[in-house]
Specification:
This protein has 79 residues and is α+β, with helices and mostly antiparallel strands. The protein has a single domain, classed as Glutaredoxin (3-Layer(aba) Sandwich), CATH 3.40.30. The chain is 41% helix and 24% strand. β1, α1 and β2 form a beta-alpha-beta unit. α1 packs across α3. It is globular, with a radius of gyration of 11 Å.
Length: 79
């Protein structure tokens, strides 16, 4: 599984990154997790607001922080 956090470094983006790492570890998935901070590359995903979350090439979230259960469901659904 490939997970990308899209964000330029704002507090919400950093929080989402931390949540993704924590959640992936808790549910025991094998994922390549990375963070994209280049605004041009972020715009290529078509999101207008950060933070964004991309799982296996599909944007699953943008512009807000998910709750822990919602994030767990998003990652588990794409296992």
């Amino acid at each position: 599984m490939d997970i990308k956090i899209l964000g330029t470094g704002c507090p919400k983006c950093k929080r989402l990154e931390k949540l993704v790492y924590e959640t992936a570890e808790e549910i025991g998935i094998d994922a390549l997790i990375s963070k994209e901070e280049d605004i041009v590359k972020i715009m290529e995903y078509g999101i207008l607001h950060t933070p964004g979350l991309v799982i296996d090439g599909t944007v699953v979230l943008s512009g807000r922080l998910p709750g822990k259960k919602e994030l767990t469901d998003m990652i588990s659904r794409n296992k």
